[in-house]
Amino acid sequence: MDENGRITVLVDDCVRGRDLLGEHGLAFWVEIRGRRLLFDTGQGVGLAHNAKLLGIRLESANAVVLSHGHYDHTGGLGHVLEVAPQAEIYVHPAALEPKYVRTDDGAVKEAGMPSAVRKAVDARPHSLIAVERPTEIVDGVFVTGEIPRRTEYESTGGAFFADSGGQHADPLPDDQAMFVESRHGTIVLLGCGHAGVINTLQYVRDLADGKSIHAVVGGMHLIKASRDRMERTVDSLCRMGVERLVPGHCTGTAATAELWSALPGRCDSCEVGTVVEFGIP
Length: 281
Fold this sequence. Notes:
Shape: globular
Distance between the termini: 13 Å
CATH topology: Metallo-beta-lactamase, Chain A
Helix content: 10-25%
Largest sheet: 7 strands, mixed
Order of helices and strands: EEEHEHHEEEHEEEEEEHEHEHE
Structural class: alpha/beta
Number of domains: 1
CATH architecture: 4-Layer Sandwich
CATH class: Alpha Beta
């Protein structure tokens, strides 16, 4: 059996390679010990197209983990349920609830799981595994469940609501990360990091009995981060000794550039087609 694990970026806002599609969303394909896991599904436009070009068989998925319930992470789930009916879906119950966001023009718009996808999910209740607490999916691969909010400078990163009138804030309790044990330390996969990047890493480190964080891969929702938040985030990443950072999706261009500058030699790009390999302990 292959002694290395592999993470392939299937959906992201940017691409590397000819004919691949980019979209505002995220999806990772994780291969470890003969198991195949899908972390998020993007909006649904690029997932199947990119998987085919990259030689990945979505129908072989053993499990799907949803980082949270927003459309740009759940939109491709209907297709996955169709081609991989055997896949188990790990999801926090709040990810299935209505979600809204206030856009820059002041309008409140739907931001949750698309209705067609929700219908497909409702038709397959036996496939759902509710995750609110730390859960092991396969040997050495875990989902955090709900993440404690400890820092005072991190927020969900936007104006998110549980109602169409924008009156009731959505704290996004469904935000969760996946983490993998590797020979060099823990690898953390983020969908958007709405619970806060540092909150998430601190919690993962607790769950992993204090093991070092080797790599952080995915969206960090720093696109509208204040100067104070950016400085404290960078400082915490440095103090935690994170060895590899692969920021994508909602991290934002300015924040990504700052992370690359602050952590020279430790950052990699996260475009569609990127492959992150790691040794299995």
